[in-house]
Write a structure and sequence with these properties.
Helices cover 49% and strands 15% of the residues. It contains 14 helices and twelve strands. A hairpin with a 5-residue loop joins strand 6 and strand 7. Helix 4 packs antiparallel against helix 11 and helix 13 runs antiparallel to helix 14. The radius of gyration is 28 Å and the shape is elongated. The protein binds guanosine-5'-diphosphate (GDP) and magnesium ion.
Length: 462
């Protein structure tokens, strides 16, 4: 009998241990991608070292990137929501640090479990400004062979009285440049003055897509928190889009500026949606000792999260990050982030045109590197020992052609003359590589020939 009781106690213990960290693996945490200092001069402190692994992990090679970001005024429940997003993601996707789905059946987890993940707090004090990535990358492999790496990014300090409007624009612009879905978190209604932070994105978009039909950015979701007119526009995506359509309508009586924001917003993003979220209830909004458990959240809000998360995070809804129309891999995204941060390191907001030019340059460099790889792979796949001197030349020619084809097929960005310049550079790089391996190969062939001659000689002598 004693043994049975002990065994039962043991089972309860195991169960409670597994239940404790049922939502988020303990190895995962928020990582500060960059900080904006709070001095008079707006300096960006960029923690490249801290995030390198998130992009350069070999497990992520060959995957296309999906990045969800959330921005908006501080203390409006962004991080709170991100932490429920983390629960949803761990229940539905594997990740770099976790090969098992956690709580697959019940993504919300235990009803009294405290909410972990990104820092979220009651009160009015700001923590820091900046961009924060979740250290774990979610993975998705579709049936048709598409492989994705999904990143989550939180932002801090927007619209705070302490942060300058340049800092706000920086956070907003950087997070829009990096993400494939930008969630704009607003309270109660869409306010015209909050849309001004989208201005940089629309300006950038105008340069990036001057003579093309595609949009510079992928998804924008305007998320209205504490929506309090559900009888006019219903909670959720349908009501939200009806509300948004009404808001974005262009009328003669609007000023030129108001018309312009509306016009360019539509053409800057592939898709713009709006979601109306219910109020979460008094405890969530006011209780400073509240631990974030869902038992204290109003039912409408919990249903809202379910609908919103399905809308954003279902596999068929995942949207890959594209730069100038080209899908981006994790290591490449890091190159672009480095370049964006460099551009934003100044007291003034950078010119959209400068960012566009340096992004394009980086993009051509990436394509050039990949095209050279095609050449090298093709050369390396041949057995050098079987080659004569003429074969070496022929191999070079036959390996160069798929590399050039690759370059031409992938070059979907930049002007004709920029493309031509990089094409010339590619030819030079390949020819230089050829000069290097050619001399080695020819020496190798000569040695082989000499060896063969000696053997022939010996055979004759015998
Ligand atoms: P952030 O600064 O936007 O990241 O805000 P936090 O996520 O840290 O949350 C700030 C406070 O808002 C916390 O006390 C939350 O409990 C509360 N909160 C979370 N979601 C909502 C919401 O939808 N409406 C309201 N009114 N408060 C919320
Ligand atoms: Mg926050």
């Amino acid at each position: 009998m004693k043994f049975v009781i002990l065994f039962a106690k043991f089972l309860v213990l195991i169960f409670s241990i597994t239940k404790c960290d049922a939502s988020i693996p303990s190895v995962a945490s928020p990582v500060q991608l960059l900080n904006l200092s709070n001095g008079t001069k707006s300096d960006i402190v960029y923690n490249e070292e801290a995030v390198r692994n998130l992009f350069l992990d070999p497990k992520l090679e060959g995957r296309n990137v999906v990045v969800f970001s959330i921005v908006g005024a501080f203390r409006k429940g962004k991080s709170f929501l991100m932490n429920y997003i983390l629960r949803y993601m761990y229940a539905n996707y594997k990740s770099v640090s976790n090969s098992q789905l956690i709580n697959h059946e019940n993504w919300l987890g235990d009803e009294n479990e405290s909410l972990e993940g990104f820092d979220w707090k009651a009160g009015t004090k700001r923590v820091t400004s900046g961009l924060i990535l979740w250290s774990d990358v979610f993975l998705y492999d579709s049936n048709d062979g598409e492989k994705l790496a999904i990143y989550l990014m939180d932002t801090q300090g927007l619209f705070d009285h302490k942060s300058s409007s340049t800092d706000n624009s920086r956070i907003f612009s950087l997070s829009t440049m990096i993400s494939s879905t930008q969630i704009l978190n607003l309270l109660n209604i869409i306010q015209e003055n909050q849309l001004q932070y989208l201005q940089f994105a629309t300006e950038y978009a105008r340069y990036a897509t001057a003579d093309e039909e595609k949009s510079a950015f992928q998804n924008l979701l305007i998320l209205i928190r504490d929506w309090n007119s559900p009888e006019e526009y219903k909670y959720g995506i349908r009501g939200g889009n009806a509300y948004l359509n009404n808001f974005l309508e262009i009328h003669d009586y609007q000023t030129k500026e108001l018309q312009s924001v509306r016009r360019y917003l539509r053409s800057s993003f592939e898709k713009i949606n709006c979601f109306l979220m219910a109020h979460p209830g008094k405890t969530v909004a006011r209780d400073s000792s509240y631990n974030g458990s869902w038992s204290q959240i109003d039912e409408d809000f919990v249903h809202g999260m379910q609908d919103l998360f399905e809308f954003l995070f279902s596999p068929r809804k995942l949207t890959t990050k594209k730069v100038n129309g080209v899908a981006v891999e994790p290591a490449e995204l890091l190159v672009f982030i480095n370049s964006y941060v460099e551009n934003f390191k100044s007291d003034e907001m950078p010119e959209a045109t400068n960012i566009y030019e340096s992004t394009l340059e980086k993009q051509f460099r990436i394509l050039l590197g990949k095209s050279v790889d095609v050449y090298i792979t093709s050369v390396a796949s041949h057995n050098a020992e079987l080659l004569s001197e003429e074969d070496v030349d022929a191999l070079h020619v036959s390996a160069k052609s798929p590399a050039m084809e690759y370059f031409n097929s992938k070059k979907k960005f930049g002007s004709y003359s920029e493309g031509l310049n990089f094409k010339k550079e590619l030819i030079k790089t390949i020819d230089k590589a050829y000069e290097q391996w050619k001399s080695i190969s020819i020496n190798h062939i000569r040695t082989l020939q000499q060896q063969r001659q000696k053997t022939n000689q010996k055979e004759k002598e015998v």
